[in-house]
Amino acid sequence: MSEWKTFYAHIRDKKKIYVLIHEKPDGDCLGTALGLSLFLKELGYEAAILHPAPIPSVYTFLPGQQHLKLWKDVLPAHALYVCVDCADWERTGYPMPENPYVINIDHHVSNVYYGNLNLVETSAAATGEIVYKMLKSSGIVIDPEVATCLYVALITDTGSFSYSNTTAESLKIGSELVMMGANIDTIRQNLYEKRPFAELLIVKLSLNNLFLAANGKIIAAAISYEEMRAYDLLDADTDGLISMLRAVEGVEVALLLKEFTPGQIKVSLRSKLTCDVNLLAQKFGGGGHPRAAGFVTSGKINEVRDAVIKLIENTF
């Protein structure tokens, strides 16, 4: 049975489908959710992407914005939910509703297979890659709007096909999406040529708080709550910094600590070849991928930094 037939068997008798995304969604998560929702709409389904907090403004150029619904109430009971790019239900930011039917589509190695149907492919470079293959197997034409969304999903999780998770399959899918009409000019302009001034402030702050360990194999930067508040910075403003840190010569692992509320620290981890940061993040209740992971914890920012660095040093 094709991927689409498997998926369709679970939605065939439904009229309304709720798509759930993870908190602080990235390009893979949003691109996948929007692309899937647009495709379902063409088939006559009512698809709504529910999210408990505003999404990053950088992705407002993507087609399908009408499907996004800021929803802060209890989720409807006895409904069909398609969770995209969420390793577990908690990542959606919602309490579990009464008697949900869940389709779990994801590529994280930390996925706990929480759905009634689990379309989990940990070898996929992006969740968008899984959804693309599923939609393609339907035999239904993928239009340029859907292609644009899925192309964004693919390039954001592969670093524009530069990260180690990029495969021949990823490149093939990217090529096919361009042939289907993905608007690469619009994507380039919005993702890479409209950098907010806040990103420069983030770089400025991080330069004052850089920390090296393990003879330069570990680099860390920390941004306190006071700094985040003083400059009115958002999580999305820090997206580019962790990749910049990882790119430093000699660095094997980079970590970025951000204190968005007093005592609550979000830690992003990136590695090159020698350290599985997903395993490290899991020790703190988080997860992700071997080369990109994260978690949220409580404590003083420098103490959290030192504890994480000590664990990383033990992996060398």
UniProtKB/TrEMBL annotation:
<dbReference type="InterPro" id="IPR038763">
    <property type="entry name" value="DHH_sf"/>
</dbReference>
<feature type="domain" description="DDH">
    <location>
        <begin position="16"/>
        <end position="153"/>
    </location>
</feature>
<dbReference type="Pfam" id="PF01368">
    <property type="entry name" value="DHH"/>
</dbReference>
<dbReference type="GO" id="GO:0003676">
    <property type="term" value="F:nucleic acid binding"/>
</dbReference>
<feature type="domain" description="DHHA1">
    <location>
        <begin position="236"/>
        <end position="313"/>
    </location>
</feature>
<protein>
    <submittedName>
        <fullName>Uncharacterized protein</fullName>
    </submittedName>
</protein>
<dbReference type="InterPro" id="IPR003156">
    <property type="entry name" value="DHHA1_dom"/>
</dbReference>
<dbReference type="InterPro" id="IPR051319">
    <property type="entry name" value="Oligoribo/pAp-PDE_c-di-AMP_PDE"/>
</dbReference>
<dbReference type="InterPro" id="IPR001667">
    <property type="entry name" value="DDH_dom"/>
</dbReference>
<dbReference type="Pfam" id="PF02272">
    <property type="entry name" value="DHHA1"/>
</dbReference>
